[in-house]
Design goal:
The protein is of the alpha+beta class. The chain contains 3 helices and 5 strands; from the N terminus they run βββαββαα. It has one domain (6-131). The protein has helices at residues 40-52, 97-104, 107-121; strands spanning 6-12, 17-22, 30-35, 64-70, 76-80.
């Protein structure tokens, strides 16, 4: 379960290695360099717990940035947004998903997300995306 935005950047490089970074409000950047592919999942889970809390079902707007390099990769950037498909978290704190989505991306991307969500998830009616003019 994604509890914070994750910016995943795939980049062509000579060596299979990854870098993970994030900045909690009011604190210096946390940076983990030279991650092996095998260590990526654990590093992301630990960073998510650091940002969103351990044992708490909270969605937060602090993004994680993961850069993965390898000789077989193509340059591609993906953004995984928290909770966009699942229903509200049981036992969660009621954090507004819409607020997190707005904070996680620039306004010019918001309209594109609304279009994708309307076409992909129109039967779910879980996100009030059509109420906004951005």
């Amino acid at each position: 379960m994604t509890r914070c935005p994750l910016e995943l950047q795939l980049r062509r490089g000579d060596v299979e290695v990854a870098e993970l970074s994030y900045t909690k409000p009011g604190q210096p950047e946390v940076r983990i360099d030279n991650l092996s592919y095998a260590d990526i999942a654990d590093a992301v889970l630990r960073a998510t717990d650091d940002v969103a809390g351990v044992g708490v079902k909270t969605l937060v707007d602090t993004p994680l940035s993961l850069k993965v390099y390898g000789p077989l990769l193509h340059d591609l950037t993906l953004i995984d947004l928290p909770g966009i498909i699942v229903s509200p978290l049981p036992g969660g704190n009621g954090t507004c998903l819409e607020h997190i989505l707005h904070a996680a991306m620039p306004d010019h991307l918001w309209q594109q997300l609304c279009t994708v969500c309307r076409s992909r998830f129109s039967s779910l009616n879980r996100l009030p995306l059509n109420q906004h003019d951005h």
